[in-house]
Every structure is written in C-alpha cells, then in structure tokens.
Amino acid sequence: MPNTIALRQRITSVKNTRQITKAQELVSASKMRRAQEQAKQSRDYRQTAYAILARLSSIKEVESQPLFEKRPIKSRLYIVITSNTGLAGAYNSNVLKLLTQSLKVDRDSGVASHIITIGKKAAQYTRHLEHIDLLAVYPAFGNQPTANDIRPILNTVIEKYRDKAVDSVELIYTQFVSNLVQKAEQLSILPARVDENTAKVIKYKYSFTNFEPSVEAVIDDAATRLIEVQIWQSLLESLASEHSMRMLAMKNATDNANDLIADYTLEFNTARQANITQELAEISGGVAALTE
User: Looking at residues 109-129, what average pLDDT do you find?
Assistant: First the structure.
C-alpha cells in the first residue's frame, strides 16, 4: 500500500490537472456557442450556392469553361482542415483517417496526390507521408476566419485546375451535426459541376436566361465565388466541431479526475487509519512492556 505522502502528492497533482481541464472545458463551451451560430447562419447560403452550381451545371455553355471541365483523374488535390492543437478528442484523427483512406485509393488507382493543409496537425501528419506533394501549409485561421484568409487557398486550387496540374479538388473537413455528433466528410469542389442525379433533387428558385456581360464572364466569376463559399462553410463547420469535441474531451477528463481524486482520497484515508492503528498498537505494546 502506498504511503500517505505519495498519495497526498497524487491527489494534489490530479487536482491541478482537474483545474486545467475544467478551465479548458469552459473556454471551449464559450467558443463553441459562437462557432455554432456562425456555422448555422451560413448554411442556407451554402445550400443556395450549391443550388446555383446545380443550375449552372445544366447549362450547355459550361462544357467549355475551365472550372467545369471534367477530365480523367490523373492527379488529385486535397484540402485538409484540422486544428493547431490537440486535446479535442477524435477531431483530428477522424479527418486524418479519412485522408489516409482516400490516399490509399489514389495510390491503388495510380492517381498522384497533392495536399494543402489547414492546421498544424494535418501538416505534421502529411510531412511523414511518402510520394505525397505537400503544396502549402496554413495554420488554423482562429475563431473568426475572414475571406482574406482563404483567398490564397482559393487562388491556388483554381490556378492548379485551370493549368490542368490537377484534375480534381477534394475538401476533407468535419461536419457539425450536434454537440455530440460530428462527422468527417469529403466534398468535391472542382470540377465545379453537380451530377445530374444530385441536380434533380436540389431546388433552386431562379432560372438563368440572360447573362451580362457574357456567358463566359458570368459563369467563371460565379463558379469562383461559389467554390469560395464551399471552402468558407467547411471552415466554419470544422471550427464548431473542434470546439464541441474539445469541450466534451475536457469534460470527460474533468470527470475522470474527480473519480481519481475520490479513489485516492479513500485510499489515503485507509492508509492513514492503518498507520494510526499501528501507532496505537505500538504504544499499547510499549506501555504493557513497561508495566511488567
């Protein structure tokens, strides 16, 4: 049985850890509420953007537009969104697991893979992968990302697709469903086309009949802005998911710390009682020896 000094040190250490995890839980809860509001408020905007893409995909003129061109996939670009730090449960590992599965499929199919990472965890992981072209590394953009943050990424993927350096662009992120459910998703953003089956089930309110100043200019600019919306919303969804999973992870850590403190306290009291009993027995034995 451990002595009382060692048990007291363990209890103090666990209490200090509990204090840290509790503080992180409260901070994450506060950030989570703001991130959830941002993600939910812009979902309708993304859905409308997707509906517009579905409408544009049905127009004959898009077949000649570079961003809508579908071609055999020989090279694929992934945009991977993770966090800068850990302590967020399975948030990062779920995204990296999905990335690993996709890379394996590409490798088996003879497709070259390129990666742009957002967040240090994705960068740390992909640096150790063989036969992978890591194009760019971006840190996580904080709790309030702006359009200027994602514009370099947008320009890079569009340039690569226009120049036919890549034939497909995939976005891997975490979709926020609820406080308890977050799911790693893979979203295709280039080519900027929606397949016919998906387009049939998407409702759009407006029918485009006239294009000013020209069909090419409108389609090209619209596609660029709509792709930007997809990246933007994925960042917001990932941010809400990160804070939710970190809050739950810290809550579980705090609960585990409470259980450990209770167990160590019980063990400490038992050990102290045993020491007192032993001391009383020694005193009684000494008194008995003196009286003989």
Answer: 93
